[in-house]
Design brief:
The complex is a heterodimer. Chain A is an alpha/beta fold. In chain A, about 35% of the residues lie in helices and about 20% in strands. Classes of the chains: A alpha/beta, B alpha+beta.
């Protein structure tokens, strides 16, 4: 079980409210961190700017990503995460109201782990959060931090290749 | 010089004049050939190997406004052709004489008569008995009209191409805008709607005790309206997807598709509806996503339009018909009046307002079937249920 916070990148205040409420009802007690635009989400993942204190702002264990956001789109955030060695193994779930095939396709091509449609009813939201908790938090094995994969070689911080 | 004399003379020059041809016979032949050659509108003429005219038929003389006597022994230069034009024909005559091969060309010309046009001409060698080029005969056709029509056609084709190009680019632009528009509907317009739905549900679940009966009813109405709006937007998006989406065709296992639909939708669960699949289902050729949409819409309707309290009983089967497969969905619902059978496939048409709906489901079915080159129809009467069928190509 991974204890980092869950990062929710979402500019729509009401959607944040619904997700928080669903977290409570689903008894998912992971801390939920909110980034209100794409750039904030990147800054948080990178531990940049006001998120530089990792003790206060630990790396997330899961990212829930809206697609249509100010500054950087969800897709741009996803691309950044996948090319950044320190966070490239982070599970990313796209959570959006767009059911456009093009969006879905692009998201998977750029390395999304799942693509979920925002439910319209609060009780469906709870069902969804429970499913996320069960699969991504409880069952799924997260990649250990500190590993780096470059030039076809896998190595861990501080250890000789 | 009469034509037969040309023939007789040139034969004589070849030293082989047939002594049995009498002058009277020559005169007779002359009349025959002259009549033939002057009956056509085309020009016919004869050159010697140095480019002197030996003969010209009546239409050509008319173009030049000359008599035969005035032109025999003359070259194109003598007849007042522009130098470039005369040069060209002299070169061609020399070439035909040298190679023994015919030449064909097209040239604009205005005769002294004032007649002008574009002329298609052929210079052809005539060989003597020892295989040497003896004289050169020519025929020329006025192709002005043909040429004009051809030019006009080419111009029209070019215009058409340009027009198609412009329209296509405009159309693509429109499609792009429409896509942006439906994206906006999907994303931006549904966001506030989701809030409306969410908060009204939270109000009615968490704050119900603070509301009287009227308050609760009004809240219910808000929730229902928001839900209907959401469904409407989703259906319109589905419809636009069916209208413009790409659809690669493949072999579809209909039985598997139907079982998948039964498992996916809660409305088709055994406790809600009795749905029987009476196989076998022959595979069909089409787009799987679209067929799934079609079948789930038809099945959705089959379980929806029920008389109060009745449990839906739906039977689905297939029949092979020549190259096609017809799929039937039979229900025990309320049925449809005969005069509504056409109408129900039109978008936003709702026959019965007692049932929740957007009037888009069957429009999607019709559009998707059309796009796959299939057919759709029904048999139904009020109180006796409905049988909807679709027909697609067998795989």
């Amino acid at each position: 079980m991974n204890l980092g916070p869950i990062l929710y990148a979402e500019d729509e205040e009401n959607d944040v409210f619904f997700l928080k409420r669903a977290f409570q009802q689903a008894e998912l007690c992971h801390p939920l961190v909110i980034a209100t635009d794409g750039q904030e989400a990147i800054n948080y993942c990178a531990g940049r700017g006001r998120y530089s204190n990792r003790a206060e702002f630990p790396q997330p264990c899961l990212v829930l990503l809206d697609l249509n956001m100010p500054k950087k789109s969800g897709l741009e955030v996803l691309q950044w995460i996948r090319q950044e060695p320190s966070v490239c193994t982070l599970p990313v779930i796209v959570l959006t109201s767009s059911l456009q095939n093009a969006d879905i396709h692009r998201a998977y091509v750029h390395g999304a782990n799942a693509y979920l449609a925002k439910p319209s009813r609060p009780e469906e939201m709870v069902v969804m959060v429970k499913a996320i908790k069960d699969f991504w938090i409880t069952q799924n094995q997260a990649a250990e931090k500190g590993w780096e994969f470059s030039g076809n070689k896998l190595r861990k911080d501080g250890l000789a290749p | 010089m009469p034509l037969s004399n040309v023939l007789a003379n040139s034969t004589a020059r070849g030293g082989k004049m047939d002594a049995t041809v009498s002058p009277r016979e020559l005169e007779r032949l002359n009349r025959i050939y002259e009549t033939i050659l002057s009956t056509t509108d085309d020009f016919a003429y004869i050159f010697d190997l140095q480019g002197h005219f030996l003969y010209a038929n009546a239409p050509l003389l008319k173009l030049w406004a000359k008599t035969l006597d005035q032109v025999v022994g003359k070259t194109c230069y003598d007849l007042g052709y522009p130098t470039w034009h005369a040069d060209m024909h002299m070169r061609e005559i020399e070439e035909v004489a040298r190679t023994g091969k015919q030449i064909r060309g097209e040239v604009p010309y205005t005769g002294e008569s004032g007649i002008s046009g574009v002329y298609d001409y052929i210079f052809k060698p005539v060989f003597n008995s020892s295989g040497k080029v003896e004289i050169i005969v020519g025929t020329t056709r006025d192709v002005t009209d043909q040429r004009r029509v051809k030019d006009q056609l080419a111009e029209a084709a070019a215009n058409l191409e340009e027009m198609v190009k412009q329209r296509t680019s405009k159309l693509l632009e429109t499609i792009g805008e429409l896509e942006a528009f439906s994206y906006t509907i999907a994303h931006d317009m549904r966001a506030p709607l989701r809030s409306l739905q969410g908060f009204s549900h939270i109000l009615s679940s968490d704050y119900a005790k603070n509301l009287d009966e009227n308050g609760k009813r009004f809240l219910d109405r808000i929730a229902t309206s928001a839900e209907r709006m959401d469904k409407l937007i989703q259906d319109v998006l589905d419809y636009s997807r069916v209208v413009r989406g790409e659809l690669p065709f493949e072999t579809i296992d209909v039985g598997r598709l139907l079982r998948g639909i039964l498992e996916t939708y809660p409305a088709f669960a055994p406790e809600k509806a009795e749905i029987t699949l009476e196989g076998p289902f022959p595979p069909v050729w089409g787009n799987e996503a679209m067929l799934m949409q079609i079948l789930s819409n038809l099945m959705g309707n089959a379980v929806k339009f029920m008389a109060d309290g009745a449990k839906p009983q739906v039977k689905i089967w297939a029949e092979s018909r020549d190259q096609n497969v017809r799929l039937f969905v039979k229900d025990n619902g309320i049925g449809i009046e005969a005069d509504q059978h056409e109408k129900i496939f039109a978008i936003f048409q709702r026959v019965n307002k007692d049932y929740e709906g957007t009037g888009i489901g069957l429009a999607i079915v019709k559009k998707a079937i059309d796009r796959m080159g299939g057919a759709v129809g029904l048999q139904s009467e009020p109180g006796h249920g409905s049988i909807f069928w679709i027909e697609l190509r067998a795989a």
